[in-house]
Write a structure and sequence with these properties.
The protein is mainly beta. It has a single domain, classed as Nucleic acid-binding proteins (OB fold (Dihydrolipoamide Acetyltransferase, E2P)). It is about 0% helix and about 25% strand. A hairpin with a 4-residue loop joins strand 8 and strand 9. The longest helix is centred in the C-terminal third of the chain and has 6 residues. It is globular.
Length: about 280
C-alpha cells in the first residue's frame, strides 16, 4: 500500500493524493446479490436538517457487511478485496466452502486467496474471529462486539484497532486508540488484527469538486457572517469572536461541551476516559 501524489500540472492536482493498494482487486465489480439501493438523506431526519453541510455526491449502493460472521466453523476464502464507497476500510468478498458469499471488513493482513475461519475453535491467527475469552492478552483486535451476538461495533474504520489488556471475571479489558479503557463481555466476538487501509487519513482531497463528489457541501465560518446570522459574526476585518466560548448559530456551546448523558448504564464499564487532545 502506498500514497500516490499526482503531478502538479493543474491547480486541483497540486495538493491531491490517493491511496493505491496492490491488494485491492483491479476491475472487480461488486457482487449484485450483496447490494442494496441507498436513498440519499442529505443530512435530513423527518425533512429537517439534522447534520449540516451534507448533500449531493455520487450515487452509491450499499454493500451488506456481515459484522456478526455467523458461519461458525466453516472455512472461508478471500476472493477479492474491494473499495467500499460507504466506509473508509476495504471490504473482503468471502467464499465459504458451502457455496455462500459474504462481505466482511478486511484486516491489514488479508490478501486475495487468504483463508479465514470464525468460531470458538478457530486458531489464533490474523483475520480469524473468535470469542474474546479465547484470545491471549496483549493481542490487537478489531470489529469488536459490545453485546454478544449483536455484531462488531468497536474499531471498524480504516486503520483502527483496540488492544486486549487482560481479563476481569466475565469481562475483558480493552484499550482504544483514544486512550479509553473499558470492559467488554468476554463472550463477545472479535477479529484478530487491525482494520485495513491505515493510510486513509494521509490522503489529500486536493480540490473542492472532489469534496462535493463525496457528498460534502461548503462550510462557511461563523466569523465571516453577519451578526444576524451567527453569534460570531460582525466586526471590521478579522475579529475575535468576542465571547467567553464558541457558539453554534443557535447560541449553544460549540467546543468542549460534554454531550454524554449523566448516570448512563454503561458508565460502570468504562474504567478510564479518553485522553484529551493537546
Amino acid at each position: 500500500m502506498s500514497i500516490v501524489v499526482y503531478q502538479r500540472n493543474t491547480a486541483g492536482r497540486r495538493n491531491m493524493s490517493v491511496v493505491k493498494s496492490q491488494d485491492v482487486s483491479d476491475g472487480q465489480k461488486p457482487t449484485k446479490r450483496l447490494l442494496i439501493s441507498l436513498n440519499k438523506k442529505s443530512g435530513r431526519a423527518g425533512g429537517k436538517i439534522a447534520v449540516r453541510r451534507r448533500g449531493g455526491g455520487h450515487k452509491r449502493r450499499y454493500r451488506t457487511i456481515d459484522f456478526r460472521q455467523t458461519k461458525l466453523g466453516i472455512e472461508g476464502k478471500v476472493v477479492a478485496l474491494e473499495k467500499d464507497p460507504n466506509r473508509s476500510a476495504f471490504i473482503a468478498l468471502i467464499s465459504y466452502v458451502d457455496g455462500e458469499f459474504q462481505y466482511i471488513l478486511a484486516t491489514d493482513a488479508m490478501k486475495e486467496g487468504s483463508k479465514i475461519v470464525c468460531g470458538p475453535d478457530a486458531p489464533v491467527a490474523p483475520g480469524n474471529r473468535m470469542p474474546i475469552k479465547n484470545i491471549p492478552s496483549g493481542y490487537t483486535i478489531c470489529n469488536v462486539e459490545m453485546v454478544p451476538g449483536k455484531g462488531g461495533q468497536l474499531a471498524r474504520s480504516a486503520g483502527t484497532s483496540v488492544q486486549l489488556m487482560g481479563f476481569d471475571g466475565k469481562y475483558a479489558q480493552v484499550k482504544m486508540v483514544s486512550g479509553e479503557t473499558r470492559l467488554v463481555n468476554n463472550e463477545c466476538y472479535a477479529t484478530l488484527g487491525k482494520i485495513s487501509n491505515f493510510e486513509h487519513g494521509s490522503q489529500k482531497i486536493g480540490k473542492a469538486g472532489k469534496s462535493r463528489h463525496l457528498g460534502r457541501r461548503p462550510k462557511v465560518r461563523g466569523s465571516a457572517m453577519n451578526p444576524v446570522d451567527h453569534p460570531h459574526g460582525g466586526g471590521e476585518g478579522t475579529q475575535p469572536i468576542g465571547l467567553k466560548y464558541p457558539k453554534t448559530p443557535w447560541g449553544k456551546h460549540a467546543l468542549g461541551k460534554k454531550t454524554r448523558k449523566k448516570h448512563k448504564a454503561s458508565d460502570r464499564l468504562i474504567l478510564a476516559r479518553r485522553s484529551k487532545k493537546r
